[in-house]
Amino acid sequence: MQAVRVKYRDRQKYICYEGQLTFKSFLDCVAKKFDLPTLDLKVYDESKTEVDEEVFEFLLKKQDIGVVEICLPQDPNLEDSLSSPSCSSFASFSGDNERDSDDTTILQHSPATRQRDEGSHLAQMIEDILKNKPGGERIMNEYARTKSLTDARRRDMVKILVAHMTSEHGTSPSRRVKEDYARGITTLYPYLADPRSKFGYEHYYNAEDGSGYLAWRLKFVQKEASEGKKKTYSQSQTLTGGPKAERDARIQSGKLVNHRKPVLRGHCAYEAYS
After folding, report:
1. Residue spans with biased composition (Polar residues) (predicted)?
2. ∠98-99-101 over CA atoms, to 5°?
3. Is 187 helix (H, G, I), strand (E, B) or coil?
């Protein structure tokens, strides 16, 4: 038997289940558990992002689902409820009886808690970057409206994030940095996660083969940086001299000598142009 800890206002209870828990059966259990008159409920994860049927299935596969918060759509205290801090817990246990619990004493430094805290931090990082960059608001508004991004908006988002990444960590950031940005994206925007992949963020960076939208953009930036250095070096050689300029000067000098002297023969002619 497994259990999900659910919060409604100031009450927390376990919803226990065996086998596959569907979104509809979950709402039914919640309504009965908290004695709610309707199944028209809003469900939110710990990042205060609304959860629908599609994402609910993905969240259940995670071992750190944390507290699932329930609100009535017409609840006048909806915003206050979502802005208040909540304790986190996910439980998997064996047993025959359901458990009700208002106990919110949790091991705050457990691995699952640390992972959730880190995920929230990364999501906030991504949100802050988008808020403060031109075009970021359009990306955020489109996701809020459609729960998805068009290819064009996704490319814009990747460009913004890679630009920030390279400004903070250089054009060759570590694997951990790339994973953090990818994880932050799918934590902030869970509908962009791939439920079929191991972590959900591999579309943006897959450490196993170095693929993903972030990785591909980085390779383009690295290529541009490399070509820019070559171009700068070539221009500096043209302006300040260098091997080619010196060689041209020697050739020109040789031509002047030939105008003043008889034509040289054999190896002497080669030496004049070398």
Report:
1. 104-113
2. 155
3. helix
Q: What is the pLDDT of residues 194-213, one digit of tens each?
A: 989 999 999 999 999 999 99
Cα(20)–Cα(52) distance, rounded to whole angstroms?
16
Phi, psi of 192 (to 5 degrees): -85, -5
Predicted confidence at residue 59, as pLDDT, reads 80
What does the alpha-carbon distance between residue 136 and residue 64 come to, in Å, rounded to a whole number? Answer: 29
pLDDT score, position 114: 65
Give the tokens for residue 173.
């950031």
From residue 12, alpha-carbon distances to 30, 104, 105, 211 in Å are 11, 8, 12, 41
Alpha-carbon gap, residue 264 to 153, rounded angstroms: 69
- Tokens representing residue 98 in the block: 């359901």
The C-alpha atoms of residue 134 and residue 156 are separated, in whole angstroms, by 10
Which residues of the chain register pLDDT less than 70? Answer: 1, 63-64, 74-114, 228-274
Residues with Cβ < 8 Å from 188, sequence gap 6 or more?
47, 49, 122, 123, 124, 126, 127
Largest CA distance in the chain: 112
Q: Please give the pLDDT value at position 193.
A: 93
- Distance CA(193)–CA(190), nearest Å, equals 5
Spatial CA neighbour of 200 closest among 179, 225, 219: 179
Owner of token pair 């457990």:
110
Classified as helix, coil or strand, 90 is strand
